[in-house]
Design goal:
Layout lengths: L1 H13 L5 E7 L3 H8 L1 H17 L6 E4 L4 E7 L1
Antiparallel strand pairs: 1-3, 2-3
Helix pairs in contact: 2-3
């Protein structure tokens, strides 16, 4: 769904409509946290980071997990 949204926004931007910004957020030291404290703690860290990011987004922005320790944000305008 995220990639489809990026494609739609890309087409709209090329047509001269609403621009967008794509942001990648990497959680530094995620692997160290996982190795030192375990998967449960590392997953809780990711949930908290996702919640903090999501709380700062506007209703038409989009947040997705991009990889193990990365999130992608699609910001309108």
């Amino acid at each position: 769904a995220f990639l489809e949204a990026v494609g739609d926004r890309w087409q709209a931007a090329e047509a001269g409509y609403d621009p967008f910004t794509l942001v990648i957020v990497d959680v530094d030291q995620y692997e160290t946290v996982r190795e030192r404290y375990g998967t449960e703690v590392a997953n809780e860290l990711l949930k908290q980071v996702a919640t903090m990011i999501d709380n700062g987004l506007r209703t038409d922005d989009l947040l997705a997990r991009a990889s193990n320790s990365q999130f992608a944000l699609l910001l309108n305008n």
